[in-house]
Write a structure and sequence with these properties.
Helix 1 (about 35-50) packs parallel to helix 4, helix 4 runs antiparallel to helix 5 and helix 5 runs antiparallel to helix 6 (about 170-210). The chain is about 40% helix and about 20% strand. It has 14 helices and 15 strands. It has helices spanning about 35-50, 75-85, 100-110, 115-125, 130-145, 170-210, 225-230, 275-280, 280-290, 305-315, 340-345, 360-370, 385-395, 415-420, and strands at about 5, 20-25, 50-60, 90-95, 110-115, 210-215, 250-255, 260-265, 290-300, 325-330, 350, 375-385, 400-405, 410-415, 425-430. It is elongated. By secondary structure, the protein is an alpha/beta fold. Strand 9, helix 10 and strand 10 (about 325-330) form a beta-alpha-beta unit. The chain has three domains: about 5-120, Rossmann fold (3-Layer(aba) Sandwich), CATH 3.40.50.11060; about 210-370, P-loop containing nucleotide triphosphate hydrolases (Rossmann fold); about 375-430.
């Protein structure tokens, strides 16, 4: 049985700047020790990304969470002694805490107690760059904080009444809650307006018949590096979690001549907070409306299969699980990477190194093949004086063959189902 407390060597910790964190994990029935260790390793990486250091880990086995303190009174007292011994600033739980549990824990421990969701929200707040990204993160933060709003010491005094507000007034807590609710409504209105603008842009793309490919994957799987490799985008790509929050779209012309739009999105993670999914729904529409999802997987990660499952769970949550998917196992250049072996295990998938570009052309060719999978070759008889129709056929599809008769131009062209409908009048029945 694993030790219930693990201390991190102090030589690995910079005590001058960063907060000191104690991690807490609970092994419930059905969860193995290895699974819990993996979850806590990931949580430690999240804490490090947020700018803090883990100084100890505390583990417990329970059949179910304690309603008051999640751990139970005895373990909480043990946790308090550990926090005092390592002089920690904050305790971070792998599992979500209810507002009541959080309050009770902070009262007993004498320090801040938060959960995995709060850490992820903190990272998102640090990485938001665009007005839309900042608004989405603020919405998620407010939705998380609203049920946890509590009174400060002495803040239950009544507010002064004015004309039209005579009577008992309202408490400061009620005032704060009302302000948060009003701000939430304001941000949602702002995001709806941004969404309307984005829909207009999408309609323009659809009229141009550009195919759309969206890169999805577990955070730090290398999606931004893939976007750079495929399109020479030059976007920021770092070996850190959640560097990309705002979607970036770049285009590339494939070998068939068609222009494809590639969009990089926010990375997913297991147990992605629902408030974040809700707040980022306008951004995630690029996933729902894509012609193809390129699911980038870190082939060097020992838990690649679990990460694939976590991404697919989020795709189901946002109703994007029906979009065609291409698995791309990245980081084949990393020593010990299993990218090539994993690609063999998953039929139809490919491996790549987004850094060295090894096997990149095979990935791009496979993307083109997948996009054309639902297309069909049709024969069109276009009037000789309708050069606009011939230009449209070249623009919307891949022309396979062209010949001229006495009264028409005969064109064999690869078209998708939408474009086929545009040429019904001139199409030769199959």
């Amino acid at each position: 049985m694993a030790r219930s407390v693990t201390y991190i060597p102090t030589t690995l910790i910079d005590r001058t700047i960063r907060e000191k964190i104690v991690l807490v994990g609970v092994q419930f029935p059905g969860v193995t020790q290895d699974e819990l260790d993996y979850q806590l390793d990931e949580l430690a990486l999240l804490v490090d990304t947020a700018g803090a250091d883990v100084v100890a880990r505390v583990l417990q086995r329970r059949d179910s969470p304690d309603p008051a303190t999640f751990l139970g009174s005895g373990k909480v007292q043990e946790l308090r002694e550990i926090c005092l011994a390592v002089d920690s600033d904050t305790v971070v739980f792998e599992h979500n805490l209810s507002p009541a549990q959080q309050r009770n824990l902070e009262k007993i421990l004498g320090r801040t107690a938060i959960d995995r969701t709060a850490v992820i929200l903190d990272i998102f707040a640090q990485n938001a760059r665009t007005p839309e990204g900042k608004a989405q993160v603020e919405l998620a933060l407010l939705q998380y904080r609203l049920p946890r709003l509590r009174r400060a010491e002495g803040s239950f005094s009544q507010q002064a009444g004015g004309i039209g507000t005579r009577g008992p007034g309202e408490t400061q807590l009620e005032t704060d809650r009302r302000r948060l609710v009003n701000r939430i409504h304001a941000i949602r209105r702002e995001l709806k307006e941004i969404d309307r603008t984005r829909n207009v842009q999408r309609q323009g793309r659809q009229r141009g018949r550009h195919r759309e490919v969206t890169l999805v994957g577990y955070t730090n799987a290398g999606k931004s590096s893939m976007l750079n490799a495929i399109t020479d985008a030059g976007v920021e790509a770092e070996d850190r979690l959640f560097v990309t929050l705002d979607p970036r779209t770049r285009q590339r012309q494939l070998s068939g001549g068609e222009t494809v739009l590639f969009t990089d999105t926010v990375g997913f993670i297991s147990n992605l907070p629902h408030d974040l999914v809700d707040a980022f729904m306008s951004t995630l529409k690029s996933v729902q409306l894509a012609d193809l999802l390129v699911h980038v997987v870190d082939g060097s990660n020992d838990h690649a299969e679990e990460q694939i499952a976590a991404v697919r769970e989020v795709l189901r949550e946002i109703d994007a699980d029906r979009v065609p998917e291409l698995l791309v196992f990245n980081k084949a250049d990393v020593p010990g990477s299993r990218a090539r072996d994993l690609a063999k295990l998953h039929e139809g998938s490919v491996w790549v190194s987004a850094v060295t570009h090894e096997n990149l052309e095979a990935v791009i060719a496979t993307i083109g093949d997948r996009l054309r999978a639902n297309d069909r070759v049709v024969t069109l008889h276009l009037p000789l004086d309708r050069g606009d129709l011939l230009a449209r056929a070249h623009r919307e599809g891949e022309v396979v063959d062209t010949s001229i008769t006495d009264d028409s131009v005969v064109v064999r062209v690869l078209l998708d189902s939408v474009s086929v409908a545009h040429f019904d009048e001139w199409r030769v029945p199959a």
